[in-house]
Automatic annotation (TrEMBL):
Protein name (database record): Basic leucine zipper transcriptional factor ATF-like 3
The organism of origin for this protein: Odocoileus virginianus
Keywords: Activator, DNA-binding, Nucleus, Repressor, Transcription, Transcription regulation
InterPro entries per UniProt: AP-1, bZIP, bZIP_sf
One Gene Ontology term, aspect cellular component: nucleus
């Protein structure tokens, strides 16, 4: 070995930085700690990715459910619009022959006990 350096790959050759630009040899315990930390980080990352995927799946399910509900509500709006149109036409036709609307006594501003009775056929 030249200049008193340890052989490559030996425990003393590997070192870690510590505050103040000093280096110290990395022990087997440090290696074990590093391996455990990396494993712990890998597991945490897997958990995080799984949680993220589950959240995305849940949002997608909610989206699908809301789309179905939206479709049902739009159909209901269409049906109710058609019913309104039909009932408005029926009301228009009824207004043409309604005895209550045709009776002139209904437009007199005098208080009467029963305005319907005076206009109904006897």
């Amino acid at each position: 070995m030249s200049q008193g350096l340890p052989a490559a790959g030996s425990v003393l050759h590997r070192s870690i930085s510590v505050p103040g630009n000093q280096t110290r040899p990395q022990s087997p315990e440090d290696d074990d700690r590093k391996v455990r930390r990396r494993e712990k980080n890998r597991v945490a990352a897997q958990r995080s990715r799984k949680k993220q995927t589950q959240k995305a799946d849940k949002l997608h399910e909610e989206y699908e459910s809301l789309e179905q509900e939206n479709t049902v509500l739009r159909r209901e709006i269409g049906k109710l619009t058609e019913e309104l149109k039909h009932l408005s036409e029926a009301l228009k036709e009824h207004e043409k022959v309604c005895p209550l609307l045709l009776c002139p006594l209904n437009f007199v501003p005098l208080p009467r006990p029963d305005p319907v009775a005076g206009c109904l056929p006897r």
